[in-house]
Design a protein that fits this description.
Blueprint lengths: L3 E5 L5 H23 L5 H10 L10 E8 L2 E12 L2 E9 L8 H15 L4 E6 L4 H9 L3 E2 L11 E6 L1
């Protein structure tokens, strides 16, 4: 049976780009289907994918983690320091075909180790209410709702966890 490994990966690698595209496509399509009844228009999808470079996930103030299942990339998560011992978790993604194989748990354990390595004592994140799988993952791993710490067009709920 394959197992998961999670390691840092350059934010601008081909693997990181492919996982970012898969993540962005999924969350964008969910929003578009909910709001308009159709998937993200291709030109809008390309704009969204290219506008976020991921450079804020580069060391020393950030990191991108890539999970591989049996050696094949299938998950990712980004961390960026916000200052004063606080890190933000972002871009959490597990390929739909690999969900329920332990990838989320492996990713979250690596996220916490990496956050501590960056000097964080607290992890925070924001997400949308319709991303129920992600919200379940966060609460399973000890995250609790917190007051809003930032604003954004897709920020609907905020979570935090002391490390």
């Amino acid at each position: 049976m394959p197992s998961w490994t999670v390691r840092p990966e350059p934010y601008d690698s081909a693997t990181a780009a492919a996982l970012w595209r898969a993540y962005y496509t999924e969350v964008s399509d969910r929003w578009y289907v909910r709001e308009t009844g159709r998937r993200t228009p291709p030109d809008e999808l390309e704009r969204g994918v290219t506008v976020e470079t991921g450079a804020d996930l580069a060391p020393p103030a950030g990191t991108l983690l890539v999970g591989r299942y049996g050696g094949l990339p299938g998950a990712s998560a980004g961390l960026r320091l916000l200052g004063a011992g606080r890190a933000e978790l972002t871009r959490v993604y597990v390929d739909d075909a690999l969900r329920a194989t332990g990838g989320g748990a492996a990713l979250m354990a690596a996220v916490e180790r990496s956050a501590r390595g960056l000097g964080a004592r607290e992890l925070v994140l924001d997400t949308r209410l319709d991303l129920v799988e992600a919200r379940a993952l966060y609460t399973r791993h000890g995250f609790r709702e917190i007051p809003a710490y930032a604003t954004g067009p897709y920020s609907e709920i905020w979570y935090g966890k002391h490390l």
